[in-house]
């Protein structure tokens, strides 16, 4: 009995010693984190100043991009000729609230309950629009990425005001994303190798992510759990994590090819992307690397989801070819795909899993539903999904090469309900076309809007 008691005392002393060592380690780690945060706050303006001096030494003039460069970096099909160059939808509005960027660099605001549209045009800085993003949880605030930087439009009562967010080389902005519920604006551009985090009210740069290359073609952000996917303008892509306070080091997953389009699922567990001039659809799934690190890394494992060179669905077999852009609906049930040389939008079901391989099931083709007197073939230029907060429906908004904007309404609230409607052919109430407007150009390139 005495030996058993002695062994018990030794084990208890050992556990107490382990607990004390663990407490000392956590205390030292917390002190190091506080010192690092204080040091980073002090060193940030100095690093930024040195970086600007280095850029001024290397480059004599500001970077100038052509229409071909912007079209190559854009997810929009035929960006130079498209009547609608970008499509943004408000993420929190109880009704469908749409912002359109036209070929004449005019921004149109459309509300499904209003018969008139608001136009922002003829501003000297608003040229070569490539991206837009509504600010979350605001009645109206819209960030517009263009050649000069970022145009930030806001509404005060019945007046619209413009503020510019500019940096010396952060020009030809290609991607915008709001973080922290609209407190921080993240932007990427072709003219600069940095991703900038803006504080819009102060007009200041809070931090930046050094890319070290010739700029970025796109950026995708998911607020939960806070991952940023960014693609370089030449080739390659990386991930990084931003939790609102710290920006964790990025992880390079691709290095050889250029990324054409990307989109996150609503839950943030999967990222879908396609490479330029490719028929393959990829998915990246996050796998936490559980180790002895307090901030565990995440391993991103790309996998091929499908080869969409030839697709069969609804009894039709079609050659699709290279993928232009992709979009996912807010409930992670449907995916919409535009192809580089095809006149239709492919709608697919999503089968997501953390363990099993991700799959898609082609559902149907969506073709132009209007009357066109033009001889050339009508094709989609961009697509976006949105959710209506006042109704349990989602809408797929499609912009066509004719300048017409239409939407397709989906009522299914789960994958099981969507599959059952498809199997019973009861999807007539699920799909409904609504015409928003048609944008045309007169003989002197003046824009005409038809409601």
Counting helices, strands and paired strands, the structural category is: alpha+beta
Number of structural units classed as domains = 2
Strand proportion: 35-45%
Low-confidence stretches: 56-61, 290-296, 423-434, 442-451
Task: Note the main attributes of this structure.
single chain, alpha+beta, Methylamine Dehydrogenase, Chain H, 2 domains, five-stranded antiparallel β-sheet, four-stranded antiparallel β-sheet, 3 helices, disordered C terminus
Give a written overview of the molecule.
With 451 residues, the chain is α+β, with helices and mostly antiparallel strands. It folds into two domains: 31-60; 61-450, Methylamine Dehydrogenase, Chain H (7 Propeller), CATH 2.130.10. The chain contains three helices and 31 strands. It has helices spanning 2-58, 67-73, 415-423; strands at 84-89, 97-102, 107-111, 118-120, 131-134, 141-145, 150-156, 159-165, 173-179, 184-189, 194-199, 204-210, 216-222, 227-232, 237-241, 251-254, 259-264, 270-275, 280-288, 298-307, 310-313, 316-319, 323-328, 334-339, 345-351, 359-366, 380-388, 393-400, 404-410, 433-441, 447-450. It has a five-stranded antiparallel sheet, with no helix packed on it. A four-stranded antiparallel sheet has the order 1-2-3-4, with no helix packed on it.
């Amino acid at each position: 009995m005495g030996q058993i008691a002695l062994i018990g005392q030794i084990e208890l002393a050992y556990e107490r010693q382990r607990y004390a060592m663990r407490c000392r380690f956590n205390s030292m780690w917390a002190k190091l984190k506080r010192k690092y945060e204080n040091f980073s706050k002090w060193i940030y303006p100095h690093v930024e100043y040195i970086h600007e001096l280095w850029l001024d030494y290397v480059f004599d003039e500001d970077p100038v991009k052509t229409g071909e460069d912007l079209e190559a970096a854009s997810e929009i099909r035929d960006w130079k000729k498209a009547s609608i160059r970008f499509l943004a939808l408000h993420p929190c509005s109880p009704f469908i609230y749409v912002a359109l960027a036209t070929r004449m660099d005019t921004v149109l605001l459309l509300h499904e309950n209003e018969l008139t549209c608001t136009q922002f045009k003829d501003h000297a800085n608003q040229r070569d629009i490539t991206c837009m993003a509504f600010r979350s949880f605001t009645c109206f605030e819209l960030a517009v990425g263009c050649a000069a930087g970022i145009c930030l439009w806001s509404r005060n009562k019945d007046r619209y005001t413009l503020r510019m967010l500019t940096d010396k080389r952060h020009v030809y902005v290609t991607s915008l994303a709001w973080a922290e519920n609209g407190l921080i604006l993240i932007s990427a551009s072709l003219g600069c190798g940095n991703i900038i985090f803006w504080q819009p009210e102060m007009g200041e740069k809070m931090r930046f992510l050094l890319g070290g290359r010739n700029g970025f073609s796109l950026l995708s952000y998911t607020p939960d759990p806070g991952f940023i996917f960014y693609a370089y303008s030449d080739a390659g892509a990386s991930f990084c994590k931003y939790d609102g306070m710290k920006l964790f080091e990025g992880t390079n997953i691709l290095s050889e090819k250029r990324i054409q389009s990307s989109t996150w699922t609503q839950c943030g567990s999967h990222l879908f992307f396609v490479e330029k001039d490719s028929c393959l659809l990829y998915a990246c799934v996050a796998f936490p690397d559980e180790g002895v690190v307090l901030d565990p890394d995440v391993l991103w494992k790309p996998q091929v989801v499908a080869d969409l060179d030839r697709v069969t669905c609804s009894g039709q077999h079609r050659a699709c070819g290279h993928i232009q852009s992709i979009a996912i609906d807010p409930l992670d049930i449907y995916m919409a795909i535009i192809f580089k040389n095809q006149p239709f939008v492919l709608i697919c079901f999503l089968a997501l899993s953390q363990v099993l391989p991700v799959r898609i099931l082609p559902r149907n083709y969506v073709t132009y539903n209007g009357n066109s007197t033009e001889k050339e073939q009508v094709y989609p230029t961009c697509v976006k999904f949105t959710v209506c907060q006042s109704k349990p429906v989602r809408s797929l908004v499609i912009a066509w090469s004719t300048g017409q904007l239409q939407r397709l309404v989906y009522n299914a609230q789960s994958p099981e309900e969507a599959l059952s409607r498809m199997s019973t052919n009861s999807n007539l109430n699920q799909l409904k076309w609504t015409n928003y407007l048609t944008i045309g150009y007169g003989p002197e390139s003046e824009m005409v809007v038809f409601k």
